[in-house]
Amino acid sequence: MDFKAKKVMPRPSIRGMIARTYFYMSKQYNLRLSRQDQQLYQAWNKTYPVQEWERQRNQRVACVMGRGNEFVGPVNLKSCS
């Protein structure tokens, strides 16, 4: 954490999830990402691949919302009860 620059770096275990969340928000809600942010999130997405808990969470969210985060992976809406 850099208090003077007012910057925070998330712990490595959640960097990929953060990247995929921003990619989803960018596409779904027209959130503009700077070129620098895009490059950072692409690196995080590649370095920190989707984990099983993230896939399971994506499926649960899709059952409620009717769609999942395509950057996490496919969902099966037929399995929602």
Automatic annotation (TrEMBL):
One of its GO terms (molecular function) is nuclease activity. It comes from the Bacteria. It holds the Pfam family Endonuclease_1. The keyword Plastid does not apply. The keyword Hydrolase applies. Belongs to the EndA/NucM nuclease family. This is Deoxyribonuclease I. It comes from Pseudomonas cichorii.
